[in-house]
Amino acid sequence: MEMEKRLTLELRNKKPAEVKELVLDNCRSDDGKIVGLSSDFENLEFLSMINVNLLSVSNLPKLNKLRKLELSDNRISGGLEVLAERTPNLTHLNLSGNKIKDINTLEPLKKLPNLHSLDLFNCEVTMLINYRESMFALLPQLTYLDGFDADDQEAPDSDPEADGDGLDDEYDENGEEGEEEDDDEEDELDEEVIDDEEDDEEDDLEGEEEEDGVDDEVRLFLLA
């Protein structure tokens, strides 16, 4: 499917300004360029164009609010200065599987002050000696390169809701265990209460028997 047609389908009768996320993966670009996307998508925050045979991002419109851009599995080899000019607030950029061969090609990304995460998996540039050290030196604003920070610590899960669910699950499990323990304690207490009540009843019976015995002795004495 052509990119422009796919774009129309993704809109689903919405106005471009109403769209915050746009996924155009696996469609066909026009001669390796972006088509159909305009600055009317002024509130776009997430844009994905994976495997659309892109050669260039020169037709990317001005998208001031764009924060995450997925461009993996294309044929981009340069021209990244466009990103610095038109996506000034970009925080995450994925260029994995493109034709980027040298570090100088990535130098324009220095002008993206908020860029914290960059992925270059399966790009030739990753094979260079001291690749990671050179990249962190070139782009000091980066926190994560290919999913790891400068100290080789893996990036945390990017989906906070998933983390929250995990915490909730753990909390629920502990809660259930706690409830089971509470139930056991309550059962034990109930048993103790029943035992105490039975003991009291036995004591009462014994007391009544003793009283009956005394009364009988008194009656016998009087009769005598």
From TrEMBL:
Keywords: Chaperone, Leucine-rich repeat, Nucleus, Repeat. Pfam families: LRR_9. Residues 149-215 have a biased composition (Acidic residues). Residues 149-217 are annotated as: Disordered. This is Acidic leucine-rich nuclear phosphoprotein 32 family member. It is found in: Nucleus. One of its GO terms (biological process) is regulation of apoptotic process. It comes from the Eukaryota. The keyword Repeat applies. InterPro entries: AN32, Leu-rich_rpt, LRR_dom_sf. One of its GO terms (molecular function) is histone binding. GO terms for cellular component: nucleus.
